[in-house]
Amino acid sequence: MIHPTAIVHPNAKLGGNVEIGAYTLVDEHVEIGDDTRIGPHAVITGHTRIGRGNRIFQFVSLGEQPQDKKYAGEPTRLEIGDRNTIREFCTFNTGTAQDKGVTRIGDDNWIMAYVHIAHDCEVGNHAIFANNASLAGHVHVGDYAILGGFTGVHQFCRVGAHVITGIASVVRQDIPPFITASGNPAAPHGLNSEGLKRRGFSSEALAALKRAYKTLYKSGLGLSEAADAIAQEAAQQPELRPLADFLRVAGRGIVR
User: Fold this and answer.
1) Which residues of 35-71 are buried (b: 16+ CB within 10 A; e: fewer)?
2) 132 to each of 5, 92, 112, 250, how far by Cα in Å?
3) pLDDT tens for residues 30-80?
4) Is pLDDT above 90 for 251?
5) First to last CA, the chain
6) Is residue 60 part of a domain?
7) Can you give the CATH number for the domain in which 53 is found?
8) CATH number of domain containing 204
């Protein structure tokens, strides 16, 4: 179902039961999967691939060139998975040749109005971005992360799985998995315990994570020493493995 005022390039690839609203532009190198609905006045351009069952609202811009002065027209990509909700005025850019050349959003994400996802970002599955959350370039966001409204994430930062940030948080360093963080700059404020309970984490798993949090933030250990201690405990407590693995990756340092 394509509105007669929409402009769809003849080389664009559309799956079955795709809806495209009035005055929407779908460019040449775009692929759209089955059962995806796109509202009016959207622009989908670049080398962009969108999966199945997505709901994309009006006035979005997907697949536009990265906001990076080094970009020289390379055929970089934007890849969006399945069953995502993308609300009004969101802007997702393609990648750059200086990274993997792709901006990637996974499945089942809920992305509210005015969210910006810059070049070379990677977003996992089941994440929630509240209104006006923004990712600078090369940011990685894990599964089930929740970014509060107006959260801003500095380039090259990592936000771990099951993290939640407060409104207007300014993220300048990596946030390890399972953490609640807020402020400017963002600082840790305990586990995201309520979110973990809702996702079925057992009382034993929560207790192990609380011990790991104390090791990381309350023990007085340096980061490498705390990471070693958590890695040792993760050998017996598999729930800690995502945290242990996260701490082993060199990055911008973690919020502390």
Assistant:
1) bbbbbebbbbbbbbbbbbbbbbbbbbbbbbebebeeb
2) 29, 13, 8, 28
3) 999 999 999 999 999 999 999 999 999 999 999 999 999 999 999 999 999
4) no
5) 51
6) yes
7) 2.160.10.10
8) 1.20.1180.10
- Is 119 designated active site? yes
143 is catalytic: no
Which domain, by its residues, includes 75? 7-138
User: Among 21, 46, 81, 119, which one carries the catalytic annotation?
Assistant: 119
pLDDT tens for 1-11 read 999 999 999 99
Tokens 């559309």 correspond to 14
User: Which 3 state secondary structure label does DSSP give 53?
Assistant: coil
Q: What is the pLDDT of residues 203-240, one digit of tens each?
A: 999 999 999 999 999 999 999 999 999 999 999 999 99
* Residue count (the chain): 256
For the entire predicted model, the pTM comes to 0.97
Q: Which of 120, 126, 140, 149 is catalytic?
A: 120
Catalytic residue among 39, 46, 106, 137: 137
Residue 250 pLDDT greater than 90, yes or no:
no
Same domain, residue pair 12 and 132: yes
Task: Clarify whether residues 13 and 132 are in a common domain.
Answer: yes
